[in-house]
Amino acid sequence: MDLRAVVVDDEQPARDELCYLLEQAGGVEVVARAGDGPEALAAVERLMPDLLFLDVQMPGPSGFEVARQLVAEGLQPHIVFVTAFDQYAIEAFDVNAVDYLLKPVDPARLELALERARRRVDHERPIDQRLEKIVQMVAERQSRRERLAIKVGERLLLVQADDIIYASMADEGITVASSQGTGTSNYRTLDELQAHLDPATFWRVHRSHLVNINKIREIVPWFSRNYLLKMKDAKDTEIPVSRTQTRRLRDYLKL
């Protein structure tokens, strides 16, 4: 018997892509698609699916807020979170969740998630405490990602991750530029800092530079078909793009 699934994502292309991959995988009937939390809750209540593919980051109620509401209402489909979190987060939660899929979804990884879901459907139903623990862990992980402390003079300034424009490694440490000011981070390496930021938003365009792709003001052609990124800080700082990252930038921006 096919698994009955509801697919939830606020971006239609992402919904369509996941539904296509599920159709190709076979053994799954997508009974509804939802673009936000309220639509998802209504679909689950109405259709009682076996499986819920749930985006984590959505406008309005987030994916884990939707999951909490399902627990409160006694509605317990098997949930596969679809997330842009880094691989470390996925591994940390993997022991408890049905599965976590990293965007963009890999077909082979989706097959594995479906195998796990079928085992759960065939042999057990998730209990409230397990799902609530998963939801709490995801919420705590995202909470750690939302703010960052940077030292500006003698002050410690808390900035939202989305307000960070770029971070650069220099002799004196990591410089972090944000819309609220520029200071230094307590992280010792860009790798450590990058692990606490959304990998879909923050790109390591150079070994010494990490940028928020939503804070790029201008792309300036440079020598050897490379680019400089002019950022949206007060100084219009220019960040070089390494040769290895130039292709990714071109693909993303259709250059």
Describe the protein's architecture and organization.
The protein is of the alpha/beta class and 255 residues long. It folds into two domains: 3-145, Response regulator (Rossmann fold), CATH 3.40.50; 153-253, LytTr DNA-binding domain (OB fold (Dihydrolipoamide Acetyltransferase, E2P)), CATH 2.40.50.1020. The protein is 37% helix and 32% strand. The chain contains eight helices and 15 strands. The protein has helices spanning 12-25, 37-47, 63-72, 87-93, 107-123, 128-146, 190-194, 243-253; strands spanning 3-8, 28-34, 51-55, 78-83, 99-102, 147-152, 155-160, 164-170, 173-178, 181-185, 202-206, 209-212, 216-221, 227-231, 238-240. The strands form three sheets. It has a seven-stranded antiparallel beta sheet with strand order 7-6-10-9-8-12-11. It has a five-stranded parallel beta sheet with strand order 2-1-3-4-5, sandwiched between helices. Strand 9 (173-178) and strand 10 (181-185) form a beta hairpin. The mean pLDDT is 83.
In short:
The protein is α/β, with parallel strands linked by helices and 255 residues long. Helix content is 37%, strand content 32%. Strands 7-6-10-9-8-12-11 form a 7-stranded antiparallel β-sheet.
